[in-house]
Amino acid sequence: MPDEEGAEGVWRPRLARSVMMRYDRVRGAELLLMPERAVRLSDEGGRILRLCDGRRTVADIVAELGAAFPDAPLQDDVPEFLARIRAEGWLR
């Protein structure tokens, strides 16, 4: 899948073409919108996926979040979360 990894073989996650992320003011939450489906994200999940722009690597995302949340176990949690979202087909 050429969209998933750059020339150096490093994954730079971004939302799949059929997925949009929107903030729902009524629910006060980030939503992933897909054809015939919507998924409400936790605050943490929304924060992570907002950084998945196709430019940042997973390591970049972990580093950026680490600056704001230095005591959080990001090295394990972020890649695991992204792998689950990728397995659903919501990230490429």
UniProtKB/TrEMBL annotation:
User: What keywords are annotated for this sequence in UniProt?
Assistant: PQQ biosynthesis
The protein's superkingdom reads Bacteria
Pathway noted in the entry:
Cofactor biosynthesis; pyrroloquinoline quinone biosynthesis
Keyword Translocase on this protein? no
Q: How does it assemble?
A: Monomer. Interacts with PqqE.
Query: Mind telling me what this protein is named?
Result: Pyrroloquinoline quinone biosynthesis peptide chaperone PqqD
Organism the protein comes from? Actinomadura vinacea
